Amino acid sequence: MKIYTKTGDQGTTALFGGTRVPKHHIRIESYGTVDELNSYLGLIRDQKINQHYKELLIHIQDRLFTVGAILATDPEKSILKNGKERLNIPKISSNDIERLEHEMDTMNDALPPMTHFVLPGGHQTVSFCHIARCVCRRAERLVSELNAISPIDPNTLMYLNRLSDYLFVLARKLSNDLQANEIKWIPEKQ
């Protein structure tokens, strides 16, 4: 199988189902940003972090492939002629969202209370988490915009929202685990 097809040479690409759209279409921007996020999660997973976090990141990466597949499917062609769904994989569920919430609660229990915003940084691994969090927020904004045009499963948008929260808490937990200096943002006085 060749990697290059030349079918996108004119600036279009095919959705799952065959519909061709411009490569700058909001649907393409949405799942492209989810793909970018997935790559950053791989970068975090490649760091020297607790094995539990690595395993959860693999699970999240799997879920993000599902999010990407959902976003890449033309809603008008999501049901086949035989009545079955074109995308025959488990969708994002409330269990996926609850798992992130449980993980955040567990990490938060082990952290000092947050009294100020914190400046991203302190350790390279923590910085990668903050970058992933920002990319996740961008993906969420794009998917929210797509949802306004072409409604998607609400769990997909909720998952991205919860994931960005998870990445923030993970950054704080890794700061703690790595004994990195967490710098509070205290606005300068005028």
Descriptive notes:
Helix content is 56%, strand content 3%. By secondary structure, the chain is mostly helical. A hairpin with a 5-residue loop joins strand 1 (12-14) and strand 2. It is elongated and about 60 Å long. The mean pLDDT is 94.
Write the layout of secondary structure elements.
Blueprint: E1 12-14, E2 20-22, H1 26-45, H2 51-71, H3 94-109, H4 124-149, H5 154-177
Antiparallel strand pairs: 1-2
Quickly list its features.
2 strands; two-stranded antiparallel sheet; elongated; mainly alpha; 190 residues
Strand percent estimate: under 5%
Average pLDDT level = 94
Proportion of helical residues = 55-70%
Number of distinct helices: 5
Q: Tally the beta strands.
A: 2
The Cα radius of gyration reads 19 Å
Terminal Cα separation, in Å?
Answer: 63 Å
Strand order of the largest sheet: 1-2
Globular, elongated, flat, extended or rod-shaped: what is the shape?
elongated
Q: What would you call the structural class?
A: mainly alpha
Poorly predicted tracts of residues: none
Taking the sheet with the most strands, its summary is: 2 strands, antiparallel
Question: Which series of helices and strands comes N to C?
Answer: EEHHHHH
